[in-house]
Task: structure prediction
Amino acid sequence: MTAEIQNYLYEHIPLSKSMGVRVEEVKNNRVVLFAPLAANINHRDTVFGGSASALAILSAWTLLNFRLKHEGLDCRLVIQKNSVSYDKPITGDFLAICEFSDDLRWKKFKAMYKRKHKARIQIDSRLEHKGETVGSFSGHFVAIAVV
Result:
């Protein structure tokens, strides 16, 4: 399953391939993405902030997209707005981990989507390096029915 999702990301979001993103884990309520420092390095020999942000967004988008497809909801999923906090410099390979287990919020999101053919949901992820949280992401995504 992870290889299939990784191939999907490489084909449909080419930046993920350029960044060397690797899908480590995909579950209904958890996605873990890996990225190497070498492909995402900046002039200070740390991870470029744009790469960290992109991986965090990608982890949340992947979790939502996987869950929507798994539940048979055919839609376009786009990010509406987000914020990222960079708590520490990332000095090596890093992860973006998105976990979502709020069943009530998911049910409300699905109900709105089914009723209006459009729904918005907020989801968070975190950036980790060597097991330590080094940043956080919060984003609002919109699912729009494919017409």
In short: Residues 72 and 132 are 35 Å apart (CA to CA).
